[in-house]
Amino acid sequence: MMRGGLIHGRRVVSPLQFLVLMQLSEEPKYGYEMLKVLRDEFDGLWDLKTGTFYPALKSLESRGFVETELRDETEFYSLTEKGTTLLSSLGGRMETEYRVTDKYFKTLMKWMPLSVKRRLIEMVGFMASNPIDIYGDLPRLLKDVPTEKKKEVLENLLVIIKRNLSQVEAVYQGVLEEDP
Length: 180
Description:
Layout: E1 5-7, E2 10-13, H1 15-24, E3 29-30, H2 31-41, H3 50-62, E4 66-71, E5 74-79, H4 81-92, H5 94-111, H6 114-129, H7 138-142, H8 147-178
Antiparallel strand pairs: 1-2, 3-5, 4-5
């Protein structure tokens, strides 16, 4: 539930702009290249239009987070020092964003009406047959990370997964015990 980059409780960039900044953290890119990457990443789930993308990009540029360089009649965008600083500070906010998202979904589950619960149960079945690969990018995430830090991250993920699996297994056992 990324709400965009928040600094001191106020949104500085939109979720789209945050994704643009992250793309530019690797290397300069031209606009259509970034747009195509985003379209490919969201695999048709987000029909990102040029009329949305380019104004978001130009806004980053007008606020000094991104700069343009003309190469062979193509505008390439890159992060400015101000953009790099912003991206770093937004990255630091991800833990808070995660906690807010976790609380949001816990509250949602608590207050969810039966009709929505039924839809959620159907969605779990869909997810079981069409798995979402949230760990597939681990090699890329851990690229350039020292081996000891990689081990620490992977050990922490195993703790989280095992804890979640234990919770699901406990509920499952309870259901089995209810079944006559």
